[in-house]
Design brief:
Order of helices and strands: EHHHEHEHEEEEHHEEEEEE
Distance between the termini: 23 Å
Largest sheet: 7 strands, antiparallel
Radius of gyration: 19 Å
Shape: globular
Strand content: 25-35%
């Protein structure tokens, strides 16, 4: 990816509460009478004290993050409850997608609800992902962290949302597209689209044109449960690549971790990676 130098009520009781309507203008992605998965997620969170005790952890500043992305994390009561919450949230995603006459497809970035699935007219409505991890279990008294992540916008035009969904990991239909197994919805969060093919957003453009900006990169190697975040300042740019003078390394993804835990790192080392691999941080 880069080069390195040196608690719960029965599901059937609350499902009707979760489908909160949200319509948009005539040029929006949705038609009047369809439902927002973001609204349903808010109702899902509000149903128990355990879920309400969490926090929004995606605090992205640049478009399309602040418009389309939402990530929420809370401490579950115990591993069994976390597993139950995951199953309920997955069922909720399917229910909302079905209500919108959509179909769920699994991609590397998560499960997407789309219209006209697997046809040239396919259009994404939203993506949903829920996972649990014991990585930060020392900060949760009874159970692991549960993380909900969704990408959706019911107000943007179809073309704007279509383009932004790709930045957020949606892979458009093509005869050669390979969908992930259905179990992909439970894979680790924050796996970005491949930097080699993902289009740039405003954030990437900003990073590429501002030498000295403090940026971070999250690396989660395959076959491992723990990733790391590297932080430093943009040193130089060339041919779509950004070279960063990295001076700090943290355990996990600092965008979703409850605290920043440093690990040993060189006094200064350089990491070169595509511009869209980096994100602005502080």
């Amino acid at each position: 990816m880069f080069s390195l130098t040196q608690k719960i009520v029965p599901f059937s009781v609350f499902i009707s509460l979760l489908l909160s309507g949200c319509s948009s203008g005539p040029d929006g992605v949705r038609r009047s009478g369809e439902y927002s998965f973001y609204d349903s997620t808010q109702s899902f969170i509000a149903l128990t004290d355990t879920r309400r005790s969490g926090a929004v952890v995606d605090k992205g500043v640049f478009y399309p993050k602040n418009t389309f992305a939402y990530t929420y994390r809370y401490c579950s009561d115990n591993p069994r409850q976390a597993a139950k919450d995951i199953a309920e949230y997955q069922a909720l995603a399917k229910r909302v997608c079905d209500t919108n006459s959509g179909q769920l497809i699994s991609q590397a970035s998560g499960t997407w609800c789309v219209l006209a699935a697997n046809t040239p007219n396919e259009q994404p409505l939203f993506s949903a992902k829920i996972t649990s991890t014991a990585l930060w279990a020392d900060l949760c008294l009874d159970g692991p962290f549960v993380t909900l992540r969704l990408n959706e916008n019911t107000q943007a035009s179809q073309s704007q949302w279509y383009e932004s969904a790709q930045v957020l990991g949606y892979e458009p239909y093509s005869p050669l597209r390979e969908l992930a197994p259905g179990t992909a919805i439970t894979q680790a969060i924050n796996q970005p689209a491949s930097p080699a093919t993902a289009p740039w957003g405003d954030e990437s453009q900003y990073i590429y044109s501002h030498i000295g900006t403090t940026v971070c990169l999250y690396d989660h190697p395959h076959q491992t449960n723990l990733g790391h975040t590297y932080r430093g300042q943009v040193f130089s740019v060339n041919d779509g690549l950004v070279k960063v003078s990295v001076k700090e390394k943290f355990k996990g993804d600092i965008r979703t971790a409850p605290m920043r835990e440093k690990v040993n790192w060189h006094r200064t080392s350089y990491i070169t990676a595509p511009a869209n691999s980096w994100f602005v941080c502080s």
